[in-house]
Amino acid sequence: MFGYANPKKYKTLSHYIFLTAVILATLFLGFGLYLALIASPPDYQQSETVRIMYVHVPAAWLSMFIYVSMAVAALVLTIWKHTLAGFYIRAAAPIGAAFTAACLISGALWGQPTWGTWWVWDARLTSVLILFFLYLGAIALNNAYDNPDKGNQASAWLVLIGSVNLPIIKFSVEWWNTLHQPASLTSLSKITSPGIHPDMLTPLLVMAFGFLCLYGAMVILRLDNEILGRKIHVLRLRTING
Amino acid sequence: MAEFFEMNGYGLYIWGAYGATGAIFFALFALTLYKTLRLKRERRLLEKE
Question: A227, A87 in Cβ contact below 8 A?
């Protein structure tokens, strides 16, 4: 597995994965938007505002998924010192922050007509806001050192410590009395008989897969930039040293 | 068509959510592409030196 953690081997694979991810993201997001905005029915209680769910929930899933993947990369960087793991944290953190921002903004826009407020300091909303700050912290630490490797390691420690927040986000709606509703899809068994109608479940899953492909394409593009940036760093050192 | 955009009076919230998400990712994608082009140009210049 670590064979692919070599930047040269990674480059040969990344081109094909990038093209596949772009094509799948275009297809799934296009079809997902059609289902979400046109084909799916309004909710009997929430009316048309339920359509915000098709962008809010996949963004929330991705914000958690990206952080978990960053925590795994942080562990690999800390234990095995794999360069690509550090590059991955640098590449993924801004995308994770973007998904978390999309989740928070769409949540506020859903909260106003549904709850009558843009924001409440309940456990779910606050823990997701903390996740957003953790992403910003990781980005800041990545760029805080002249030596990029030191920045990557400092960021990895923050990501590892911040992973404590993940179970808090997941279980906040069960541990505390929150305004935010509990999860409708909690496990694989609930996907087969979920508390959500198939007409609404289908666009939700299509949009989620589209977001996942979009993430795949963007993270590869950013990883390529990180590798290129490191090559330029080496070239600059060679120029300085003659 | 106007009905579709009004979304039963909730158009501002729904289009706001989709628009904000789209704008965030468009900005991130544009910045990433700009960085790619800038880095490629810088590498070409350094390799010439």
Answer: yes
Nearest-angstrom CA–CA distance, A180 and A230: 43
Query: How far is it, in rounded angstroms, from Cα B8 to Cα A204?
Result: 21
Question: Which residue ranges of chain A lie beneath pLDDT 70?
Answer: 1-8, 186-194, 242
Number of domains making up chain A: 1
Contact A42, A50 (CB under 8 A): yes
CB B28 within 8 A of CB A94: yes
pLDDT digits (tens, 9 = 90+) for A153-210: 999 999 999 999 999 999 988 888 888 877 777 655 555 666 788 889 999 999 999 9
Q: Please list every residue in chain B whose beta carbon sits closer than 8 Å to the beta carbon of residue A57.
A: none
φ/ψ (deg, to 5) at A43? -80, 150
Q: Would you call A42 an interface residue with chain B, using a CB distance cutoff of 8 Å? A: yes
In a domain, A195, yes or no: no
* Residue span of the structural domain in which A105 resides: 2-182+204-241
Cα–Cα nearest to A210, from A58, A36, A1, A7: A58
| Chain B residue with the nearest C-alpha to that of A102 | B21
* Under 8 Å between Cβ of A65 and A236: no
Place of tokens 């048309």: A48
Query: Which residue in chain B has the smallest CA separation from A46?
Result: B10
